[in-house]
Amino acid sequence: MSANTKTSRKVARYAVPVAVAGVAAATVAMVPAFANAGGPDLPKVTAQQLIEKIAASDVQELSGTAKISTDLGLPKIAGGLLGGSGVASGSAAPEDKVAQLANGTHTFRVAADGPDRQKLTFLDGKDEYSLIHNGNDVWGYASKSNEVFHEKAPQPGEDGGKASGDKKTADRLAASPQQLAEEVLKAAGTTTEVGVGDTAQVAGRDAYQLVLKPKQAGSTVGSVQIAVDAKNGVPLRVQLLSSQGGKPIVDAGFTKVDFAKPSADTFTFTPPKGAKVTEGSDGAGKGGHEKALESFPGLDALTGGANGKGEVKVLGEGWATVAQINTGAGKSLKDLESDKNAPKEAKQFLDSLGDKVSGKFGEGRFFSTRLVNALITDDGKVYVGAVTKDQLVKTADSAK
User: What's the whole-model pTM score?
Assistant: First the structure.
């Protein structure tokens, strides 16, 4: 077998779409009701055998229904920023739909036929939103506004078949529980305890559960649980659980799944008559979180504005990793608080951030979610990571 053939088969193994893009790659899981009480009686396997089963899976074709439920515990005003406004207004841009997955519960139909054909159709409300990857083309369609997004998928030989910079939409559509599981296991390293949990039944199929737990103290993550199809090795569900307990932080997986080959016309798309078609490329410019902050009244100065160049350092390792961002901002939080001319929306945002904190690093504000926490200091630095408040302050102190 040639090296190219092996590579193609490897890519195909991880081409089954269950979630869109980076949100799924971060943390996704299914509501507890999908797992029946008292899992099926399956032959015992070790964690290594289960990992090998995932890697050996060669499933390339499927269709079904999946669901993502996210509970990050965001402040209302911050949730509005991260949720984006583009989709609500009918935007066809994929990044707008992806941003909306940061809140609430979303259901969609999925279909895949190898690495070159995938489709996601969101079932939130009566208005259709679909993402389709068919060979050389990637389409996004919003029925509410009759808008269409289109870009060319990267081809072999074009930057190695990958877009430079951020992933293009075609890569995002190929994101899957297999790909997510592979990335999680690759990143686990010596800071993670890997084991096998109780069996489960997901979307009517028997499954093993691979469980990853941080060995380090200070993480907001309690465990990551990956439900793996006992027959074909396809990850059916990925759950991210909080170290504080309660329902999953994020939930994604199948509610129905069929591993038969979808019909070819599933991936056919022609822009409707009169539709506005936008040609574009994902990943150009800044990330969505920076755009959201800069568009908020009074906060553009804190992010350095459109020309800001933030310096990023990675502190710590494993589950206790924290990113230190020096924004190079022209104003501090204190400046904004004392500015009588600052928009009231900006001050409301500051109030929503939570407690004022202090330490060896100085003073700042603490922004809290169930997963990712951030410390914004008065001297223009941001410390962010999936760690507790105490761990974040400890890291900021040691960085001084």
Answer: 0.72
